[in-house]
Amino acid sequence: MADKTSGDRGARLAADIGGTFTDIVLELGGHRWSRKVLTTHRAPEKALMQGIEETLHLSGVAPNQIVWFVHGTTLATNAILERRGARTALLTTDGFRDVLEIGDEGRFDPTDLNLVKPTPLVPRELRFTISERMAADGRPLIPLDEARLTMVAAALREHRVESLAIGFLHSYTNPDHERAARDRIEALLPGLAISLSSDVCPEIREYERFSTTCTNAYIAPIVAAYLDRLEENLRWLDIRCPAFLMTSGGGVVPLHLAKRVPIRLVESGPAGGAVLSSSIAQELGETRVLSFDMGGTTAKICFIADGLPQVSRLLEVDRAARFRRGSGLPLRIPVVELIEIGAGGGSIASVDAMGRIAVGPRSAGSEPGPACYGRCGTEPTVTDADVLIGRIDPERFAARTVRLDIQAAEGALAGRVGDKLGIEALEAAVGTVELVDETMANAARVHGAELGKDLARHCLVAFGGAAPLHAARVAEKLGVSKIVVPKAAGVGSAVGFLRAPMAYDIVISRPVRLDAYDAATVATILDEIDRRARDVMSSLAGIGELSTAHTADMRYVGQGSEISVSIGRDAPAAQELQARFEERYRALFGRVIPGAPIEVISWQLRLSRDTWRGDGRAPRLKARAKATAPSAVRPVFDVHRGGFTPYDVYERGALSPGAVVRGPALIVEDETTTVVPDRFDVRADESGHLVLERCPGQEAVG
């Protein structure tokens, strides 16, 4: 199906560590093998190595045949959410000690008198200040008080600080003071991990820059320790190829580069899913795609336009309120624009104070996992509900590596939900499934409204262990008529890792107004960003030739956010920049503001190289062919019929290209099950994707 630019002479391996399962995918010579193993949270590399060994055994591929290894992990994200990162301090300019708490002075809910804002990762007693000052144009105003650094180092030692963030005012224009402070403290405290804001996030807006740098410092030691253990384990397995990490921006970077800026590893798994959906959109020629990734812990929703995901430069983590912008810790990094909610297979069902069923955001994860896993879990989950209503075959789950206990699922739903509401366990299961489907559909509606998207005109691409179970019902609620369940959907994010380009983004803030535009100044700025790029390229020696793409973040003067505009390598004329900005602005907002001054805030360079390419042919839906006979019939609760309905069961591997299955049916495979209601037909295309389409005359039912 694919011609792999980095894997023509060997195997390609990907590993995605999720909150519940660790997914492994191995590709060689057009063949693919995959495995799901329960994540071991205390030592994530344990499950990773187990999955790799099992996959190698399954495939017969030798470790020394692997030439490309890509890894994505929730380690950085979980460390932030669970507040178990390194003991971190902040060194900043006099007068700016409390920026992390003041933030932008906004309230994400102005009506809540008891509003609780996110707690900074660095407590006030570990935030130190020093006399120094740079002007906004980079001129030194107050020299760095180097004598004070000795006192700061002593305080860091006394407080047993493990990692230090240094963020000075306007250091994005001149990093000299930050670098001098780092050098002095490194000499006094060798071995201390230090993150500079001028390296991690050299952009304007002190709150976001300081927050990003502190978060990077907070996770840096544990990420570095994990990556060191990973390298050691890979060598033990005799896997000697280069190792790459998936980043939040949808690209992969070498392991040593990931150690330098680990904050870019946040949201790496969801980014891999967006890459998969983008490649599927390109294969099928779909210009509007809604990517739906539902795993064991969370569900992720992302819009793909013309084969590319939307990319943002701001991410919020650890939100105090779901769907509320401003309620989390801001991170200014390249990130795929998506919405993530606590609605996965392991999301826990309960009864709230108003006597209603509630689902998530807490998850049973893999330890102990859903009640049906038989690992001493007692709280009911979405997976327990899916088992009870017949969507999941207890004997067929996770390639038969986890045998599910249907009685345990029934007992958990009855005891924790049904008995409290005076209903049977089955009713509790149906309510749980309907609620989680509505939660995901509503998240898609909210995200679509924010981006101005017409959901009904999109094709839904569903992957992850749980998404194919729920995709048809979510599509009905959204009015979507077409669903694609990719080949190897259950390990979709890991497949996306193997399709991701190598990419690294370099951004610097140098504000330039077009009404005071100087081409020589802009040329100097572009030269500076190119110098930074050469440093990165030197660390990628031997990887191959990288392409470059320059962009400028622009806005009308006084606006609070920017839009990205493509520019060339050479300094463009002011009139050209204005024309490109207005064209992009009009496309987004339908109008321009005549006569309003325009400015460039930041300049960006993306280094990239494709590591995978399709065969250039869109897979066709062959002439209709009769599907093989179903392997079984299983009763599944149908919410529209209000009772159990016989569903034909088909093995996905037995469906030849062009085979058509009419719902109601279940298409089963090792990593997931696709639920096909009677309102849909499903056909297998040439590439092995399942394409579900609503039958003519069947209206969407919410």
What can be said about this structure in brief?
The chain has 702 residues and is an alpha+beta fold.
Mean pLDDT equals 90
Number of helical runs?
Answer: 16
CATH overall fold name of the largest domain: Nucleotidyltransferase, domain 5
Report how far the terminal alpha carbons are from each other: 37 Å
* Unreliable segments of 5+ consecutive residues: 1-7
CATH superfamily of the largest domain: ATPase, nucleotide binding domain
Structural class: alpha+beta
Number of domains: 6
Which range best describes the helical content: under 10%, 10-25%, 25-40%, 40-55%, 55-70% or over 70%? 25-40%
CATH class of the largest domain: Alpha Beta
Largest sheet: 10 strands, mixed
Quick one: how many beta strands?
38
**What does the radius of gyration come to?**
26 Å
Q: Which geometry do the CA atoms define?
A: globular
Q: Which architecture name of the largest domain does CATH use?
A: 2-Layer Sandwich
Strand content range: 25-35%
Account of the protein in words:
- α4 crosses α5.
- It contains 16 helices and 38 strands.
- The model is unreliable at 1-7 (pLDDT under 50).
- It is globular and about 80 Å long.
- It folds into 6 domains: 2-80 and 224-260, Nucleotidyltransferase, domain 5, CATH 3.30.420.40; 90-215, no CATH class; 268-342 and 435-499, ATPase, nucleotide binding domain (Nucleotidyltransferase, domain 5), CATH 3.30.420.40; 347-434, no CATH class; 511-609, no CATH class; 637-694, no CATH class.
- The longest helix is centred in the N-terminal third of the chain and has 31 residues, at 206-236.
- It is an alpha+beta fold and 702 residues long.
- The protein is 31% helix and 28% strand.
- The strands form 10 sheets. Strands 14, 15, 16, 21, 24, 25, 31, 34, 37 and 38 form a 10-stranded mixed beta sheet that branches.
- The two termini are 37 Å apart.
